[in-house]
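ugh ok so i messed up the first submission bc i forgot one of the chains. this is the corrected input, ALL of the components this time, i swear. 903 residues overall. if the numbers dont match what u have on ur side tell me asap before i send this to the collaborators (the ones from the other lab, u know who)
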Amino acid sequence: MTIHLDRRQALASAGALVVSVALPGVAPAATRASRLPLKPDQLATYISVNADGSATAWIGKVDMGQGTDVGWTIMVAEELDLAPDRVSIVQGHTDVTINQGGASGSTGIWKGGTALRNAAAEARRVLIEMASERLRVPADRMTVANGVISDKSNAAKKVSYGELIGGQHFDVTLEWNKQFGNDLAITGKGKPKSPVDYKLLGKGGVRRRDVPPKVLGTLDYMVDVKVPGMLHGRMIRPPIAGAVPTAIDEDSVRDIPGVKVVWKQGFIGVVAPREWDAIRASERLKITWSDAKPPFPNQAAIYEHIRKADVVHRDVEQTVGDVDAVFAKATRVVEQTYEWPFQSHAGMAPACGVADVRNGEATIWSGTQKPHYAAQGVARMLNLPLDKVKCVAMTGPGSYGRNDAGDATMDAAVLSQAVGKPVRVQGMRFEGHGWDPKAPASVHVARAALDQDGKVIAWQFETKGFSKRDLFTNEGDPAHTLAGQLLGVPLKHTAIFGAPGESYVFDTKRKASETIAPLLDRGSPLRTSHMRDPGGPQTTFAVESFMDELALATNTDPVEFRLRYLKDARDIGVIKAAAEKANWKPHVGARKQLVGDVLVGQGIGYATRAGTRVAIVADVEVNRTTGKVWARRFVVAHDCGQIIAPDLLRQCIEANVVQSASRALWEEVKFDSHRVTSVDWQTYPILDMTEAPETIEIVLINHPERTPTGAGEGATRPTAGAIANAIFDATGVRLRQAPFTPDRLKGGLA
Amino acid sequence: MAKRIELNVNGTRHTIEAEPEMPLLYALRDDLGMQNPRFGCGLAQCGACTVLINGEPTRSCITPVDGIAGKTVTTLAGIGSPAKPHKVQAAFIEEQVPQCGYCLNGWIMTTVALLEKNSRPNDAQIREALAGLKCRCGTHASILRAVKRAAQA
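and heres the new structure output, hopefully the right one now
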């Protein structure tokens, strides 16, 4: 049976409402009824005290496995003077939290944590005020320990948080900045503690709650959601990107039990009671596709395409002085070009989503970073009021930006509405790689004007590439999902590459980026969206490689050269800390040191990101015969302002370094004129255990008095530049195109 | 055509009706309702579906369900329990290894098998034994620490 979709069709009334389905991931107490109304200026939206005196913090952000929720726990427990195991966190679910942007832009601790800290400080103030009234003791004579408020001069006079308000809601209004999403900020009259009073924050040792169930195999992941009566769905993507089905032959799957085909325009999927049957049906269904013109250039010509393409948008990110005038009078000009390919999120599994759309309501289960936006997108797509769409935030197969999770959620919602039953969709591996949103390919041209003393008097950096945001950073609009694009909704591309700034100080300087049109504007497997540190790794690879080339051009040590053009003490601090820990030996040019059978080299990379500073020194070994690089040792100096949980911060940095090393050494989305041909781990290799670094040494620089500015992405930014510079030191080969694969390096070594 | 197939999983016998060529993974997840192992690639390239079959780490995503009659299947949840975790699980918890954790079946089950054969592997032997596994979050450094800890346990 083929179901032809009409987005405006009245919702089928088929199927009784499922009663008392246990929702994976939601504690029984966390029901909508007990949480309404959720208003952004109400303390009760963020903090509640339970009957036993423990506290729950509610946040519209999501931890994706870095332990951000431990950071939130620590920040709340510190302000409330509770043990961390007496603070629980509920994150992401749209019916019990408010939209604070989800996981996004390294703002989990910075903005989400700051909001919770302010809320907890206000809760403490209010609780002390309540205790003061009840005990008839002035508030300034009160002290708090383990959730018990007592009279400093008479410990017998005491009352617990639970006795004061356990099980009831705070009725307290906060100052709210009228923003939702990442920028939501709140403050109360209660001021957060001064760092000198910290008992917990910054000390480490608080354990993650999600680790034991993950390791013991007891955690319900996104893929484990089962809803009574649920069907399994699989989407079918075209053999030529841009082609749409013109006819289907249902007889080709008629022998598979219970299969239904759902088709409208470019959106085509199958559902079946058994998952294996849905998979078989998706493979066997005979489809006639439209005669689409192959949309992509030859892979080898991608950078030529970028250079020649019309510019649709130009940003000047940084400008100081009259760069052009200075270049005109330069003694010497150095210019180099760097290239970076499309890269894939390539999650551990293709995304999965479950939707139950019936009776004018929808519940969606999603591994998305941004559950509130996922609910908005589904509501718009299905023409449902937003308050009738609930998103349950589930643990997915990792997430480092806008990956395919939002697409799978929307696919499930469209299928569920069409068949009137709950539907679970998961992609196959070739869809995970081949059809997830991509990070954009780009070309970076760097120029410097030198005076007669070798001083850089002008510095110019021009990027040209695809937008980093064909799709917005969230799936809150159907235009930003594959399903929406395949169903013909009007597109809303944003043309912006957006090269992030760095903090080198030159007398004159211009940093600009130009954006070109997408290769295929609708339903493209090369559509772009944010991937861990959007624009950062590629731009910083080019900047940091060029800084080394300028150091060589001016007969200067790479570390010394950078320090000449930095003024900020924290910028200088991370570079000096990394160099010292790495036992950096000043040198000019490539040393080509042979140790045993391998060439060894050391290189530095440095970046700032939204206030966080990171310097990385990489030590590499290069096999002279194969050209294979082992990034053996990294030293990372990391300054993200205030440190909340140093142990988790270290692990977060380590994983950023390994993932970004993988992107630098191996990762490139391959495609031909018809389609993406990187479709699995053979055709899109990533770093494996034999190539993992031997050591990652981390120097944490703490500023307890400063705002914590985030660590989710900062250490991803300088890695590729550090590795490229180390490869140069080892071999004398300057790689200006990523990734640094054996073939590419072998060519230079010959 | 679907046929009756007997499975012995974590010490319990089950009988299912399935296409004989259906991979074991779908029998475990959909017929037996287990949360793990998980689908990662369906191509034996990543390890997220790894189970032990007669003690050997095996990719259940490409193993036809018909071929394991008479063999024992052990999953991640079958090697230890919250009360008594396997020493490899205990080490992974102690080192707080996972980020998303989706890949853990492969790393833990392959390590269990490695330590059965070689109770004191060196760094190179550990890396070689774990070479065919993927972790996209980049937790390799934590994994190495945990495997070394488990080998000392």
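quick check: Confidence is low (pLDDT under 50) at residues 5-30 of chain A. that seems consistent at least. Chain A has 18 helices and 30 strands.
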